C-alpha cells in the first residue's frame, strides 16, 4: 500500500515537473519568436550604409517611430545585393532588399525572390513616370532616382565631352573611370546608356572606348573615390553628384556633362523578399522609406532625387544637379547580352 502510494506520488511529481518544463520551454520559444519578429533585416549596398550614407539616420528614425530593430547588411554594390538574395532564395535570411534598380529589376522578378506590396498612399506621393520605371506590380517600390552622367573636373587639361561618342577621342586616353557592370548598378547603367545610343553597334563603341578607360572599379564607392582623389578627370556617376561637392566642399569645379542625345535614368527600389521572416516589419519599413521623414534624409546623404515628390530639394541641387531634357532607356535583355560582349572586349 505504502509503495503504491509512493510510486503514484513520484509519478505525479514527474508529470508536474515535465509540464512545468514544457510550459517554460514553450514560453521561451514564444519569447524568442517575439524577439525575432522585432528585427527587420535589410540587404543593401555599401554607399547606403557607408560613413556618409543615409543608413544610420534612417535606422535611428525608423526604430524610434516603429519600435522595430533595424539591421542593415552591406552586400557590396547593387548587383551583388541581388546575387546574394538569389543565392539565399530557398533559405531567406533578410526581409527587405534595397537598391535594385530598373536595369536589374527584371532579373529579380524572373528569379522569383520578390513579394508584391503596395505602400499606402504611394501613388499620391511618387510620380507616375518614376513608378513606371520599376513596373506597376509593386514588387519594387521606388525610393530615389537620378540620371546617369559623366562627371567632369573642370580644372583638368582635357575638354568637357558633349556626347558618348566624344569619350572615344584619344584626348581622353586613360582618363575615364567606369564601374564593372557585373557588380555595380552604375556600371550596368553606363552599359545600358551605350546600348540606348549605339544599339547593335555597341561592341564597336566599347572597342573604341577601351584605351580611354583608366579602370573598371568594382563599385561606385571605389570608382568615385578615385575620381575625388584626382586619379582621372571623368567618372560615371549621376547628374546629382556635383551637388555634394557644392554642399560640403564649396566646390563647383565638378560638373555633370549634359549630352543633347539624352541620358539613361536609374530608379532605385526596395522590395520585400518572398518568405521574409518578418513580413509585417518589412511592410512597415517600406511604408517608412517613402515617407517625407525618411525621404528628407536622402538628398544630402544619398545624393539622389527622393521619390517622394513632396520633399523640398536643398539649394545645392538647384545649383549643381541639372535635369537632362531627354531620358533614354534600353531593353534589359539587350543590356544583359551587351554586358557579355563588353567584358569580352575589355579582356
Please tell me about this protein's structure.
By secondary structure, the chain is α/β, with parallel strands linked by helices. 44% of the residues lie in helices and 19% in strands. It has 15 helices and twelve strands. It has helices spanning 2-37, 46-49, 55-66, 78-87, 105-111, 122-125, 128-134, 185-198, 202-209, 220-228, 242-249, 279-289, 292-295, 315-320, 332-345, and strands spanning 39-44, 69-74, 96-101, 114-115, 141-153, 176-179, 213-217, 234-238, 254-257, 263-273, 305-306, 327-328. Strands 1, 2, 3, 4, 5, 6, 7, 8, 9, 10, 11 and 12 form a twelve-stranded mixed β-sheet that branches. Helix 8 (185-198) packs across helix 15 and helix 9 packs parallel to helix 15 (332-345). The longest helix has 36 residues, at 2-37. The protein is globular and about 55 Å long. The model is unreliable at 1-36 (pLDDT under 50).
Outline the fold blueprint.
Blueprint: H1 2-37, E1 39-44, H2 46-49, H3 55-66, E2 69-74, H4 78-87, E3 96-101, H5 105-111, E4 114-115, H6 122-125, H7 128-134, E5 141-153, E6 176-179, H8 185-198, H9 202-209, E7 213-217, H10 220-228, E8 234-238, H11 242-249, E9 254-257, E10 263-273, H12 279-289, H13 292-295, E11 305-306, H14 315-320, E12 327-328, H15 332-345
Parallel strand pairs: 1-2, 1-3, 6-7, 6-8, 10-12
Antiparallel strand pairs: 3-10, 4-10, 5-8, 5-9, 5-10, 5-11
Q: Could you provide a short overview of the structure?
A:
Helices cover about 45% and strands about 20% of the residues. With about 350 residues, it is α/β, with parallel strands linked by helices.
